[in-house]
Amino acid sequence: MAKTELYVVRHGKTMFNTLQRVQGWCDTPLTRTGEQGIHYLGLGLRDVDFVEAVSSDSGRAIETMRLILGEHVRGPEIPYHIDKRIREWCFGSLEGAYDAEMWGVLPRILDFPDYDEMIANHVTFEAIANAIYHADTANWAETFDVLTERVKTGFEDIAYRVEKKGGGNALVVSHGLTIAFLLHLINDENNVRMDIENGSVTRLIYEDGSFTIAEVGNTEYIKKGLALSQELLS
Hints:
The chain is of the alpha/beta class and 234 residues long. It has a single domain, classed as Phosphoglycerate mutase-like (Rossmann fold, 3-Layer(aba) Sandwich). 45% of the residues lie in helices and 17% in strands. The chain has helices at 15-19, 32-44, 59-71, 99-109, 115-120, 125-135, 144-164, 176-186, 220-233, and strands at residues 4-10, 50-55, 80-82, 168-174, 201-207, 210-218. The protein has a 6-stranded mixed sheet. The mean pLDDT is 96.
């Protein structure tokens, strides 16, 4: 049986990412720059032998997957599924606001003077989730327990399915905070401040019912694809 490995990609840069607005369950399209970055990522991943592809049900994740598979040497042959469990956190009534507004409100709920002080005190994902749940006047945000169950089972089920079919590599497109949270669920030393860039690749190895982290937030595949694109044009 082949080793089971997930290549977890954060979607390409969107309009709200560029404008620094909160984007959880709400959705905006990839920008031209975002599309170009994922185009290069697809070229950088084009020779990786993927046995399955899975994205969240958000439009930005679906479009990212479409662009990656469009560059892959076997793109049309790779089975593709959509799983809403690996979508971003829901920020409820905070969705669409500027990032600075949300990260200004949450520290006050948690009795910190500002964001930097909150992070310096090693605030937990659970505390952040509880603060979002408390701040959400629309009552849409998930509790920490619901969020944990959703993210944990979503990624585990993907890996388990691949393993049962003989293992191999799976391409997964998800979201920044969700990926960072998953890394925390795997190893609680991983904290809120983890930097997961748009288009970066985080590789996870699944064995005996659990994940180990091979690499986090790798952007070298984008650079590889850019170099290949320039080579093809020369």
